[in-house]
């Protein structure tokens, strides 16, 4: 929890600085690159958190990986983090920066879970529904697959959930039958 608060302070500062230098989109792309690196490489995150590896070694590793790929402002925040021995915060900062960027740009986030992948037409319908629910002009839609839904979808937008899956409808029907005293248990 304390790490999240500290990471959030860096995120707010970086967001404001990136906006003032007209580098917001570039820094956002950099943070997504760092977030993907953290998600796909467990050893990278372990290295960042390791108290055994010296901070100057971590800085050299981060510099070799990212210096030619990221905006100078992103590299500056990496250098500040390593100078202050805060490298373990980098994954949280990268993740939270994306959320702050979306909030700043008015982009809504939603997750749709389906039994089969969505085609372009269905994706457009779901995005339109999310825009209507969240009153956002843009939507970042994350898609998940769950074959146990059988069909339909489960849509999560902020704190609202729309469960239109066949699995939940079957569960509701089963409960309805159990409540009826004239129907034997099935």
Quickly describe the structure:
The protein has 186 residues and is an alpha+beta fold.
CATH topology tier name of the largest domain? Peroxidase, domain 1
The level-1 CATH class of the largest domain: Mainly Alpha
- Could you report the average pLDDT, rounded to the nearest whole number? 92
Structural class, judged by helices and strands? alpha+beta
Strand order of the largest sheet: 2-1-3-4
**Radius of gyration over C-alpha positions, nearest whole angstrom:** 22 Å
Could you tell me how far the N terminus lies from the C terminus, measured between alpha carbons in angstroms?
47 Å
CATH architecture of the largest domain: Orthogonal Bundle
> Quaternary arrangement of the chains shown?
single chain
Question: Helix tally?
Answer: 8
Low-confidence stretches: none
Helix content: 55-70%
Count of strand segments: 4
Jot down its keywords.
Peroxidase, domain 1; four-stranded mixed sheet; alpha+beta; 2 domains; elongated; 186 residues
Topology:
Layout: H1 2-20, H2 24-40, H3 42-49, H4 55-66, H5 72-83, H6 90-105, E1 107-114, H7 120-134, E2 138-145, E3 153-157, E4 160-163, H8 166-179
Parallel strand pairs: 1-2
Antiparallel strand pairs: 1-3, 3-4
Structure report:
With 186 residues, the chain is of the alpha+beta class. The chain folds into 2 domains: 2-103, Orthogonal Bundle (Peroxidase, domain 1); 107-179, no CATH class. Helices cover 61% and strands 13% of the residues. The chain is built from 8 helices and 4 strands. Strands 2-1-3-4 form a 4-stranded mixed beta sheet. Helix 7 links the parallel strand 1 and strand 2 (138-145). Helix 1 (2-20) runs antiparallel to helix 2 (24-40) and helix 2 packs across helix 6 (90-105). The chain is elongated. The model has no long low-confidence stretch (mean pLDDT 92).
């Amino acid at each position: 929890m304390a790490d999240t608060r500290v990471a959030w302070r860096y995120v707010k500062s970086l967001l404001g600085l990136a906006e003032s230098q007209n580098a917001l989109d570039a820094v956002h792309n950099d943070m997504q690159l760092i977030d993907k690196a953290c998600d796909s490489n467990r050893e990278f995150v372990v290295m960042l958190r390791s108290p055994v590896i010296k901070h100057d070694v971590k800085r050299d590793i981060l510099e070799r990986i990212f210096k030619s790929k990221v905006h100078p402002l992103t590299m500056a925040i990496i250098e500040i983090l390593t100078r202050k021995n805060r490298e373990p915060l980098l994954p949280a900062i990268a993740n939270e920066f994306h959320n702050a960027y979306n909030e700043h740009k008015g982009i809504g986030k939603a997750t749709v879970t389906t039994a089969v992948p969505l085609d372009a037409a269905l994706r457009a319908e779901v995005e339109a529904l999310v825009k209507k629910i969240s009153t956002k002009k843009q939507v970042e839609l994350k898609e998940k697959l769950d074959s146990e839904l059988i069909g339909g979808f489960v849509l999560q937008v902020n704190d609202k959930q729309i469960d239109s899956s066949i699995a939940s409808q079957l569960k509701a029907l089963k409960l309805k039958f159990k409540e009826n005293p004239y129907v034997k248990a099935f």
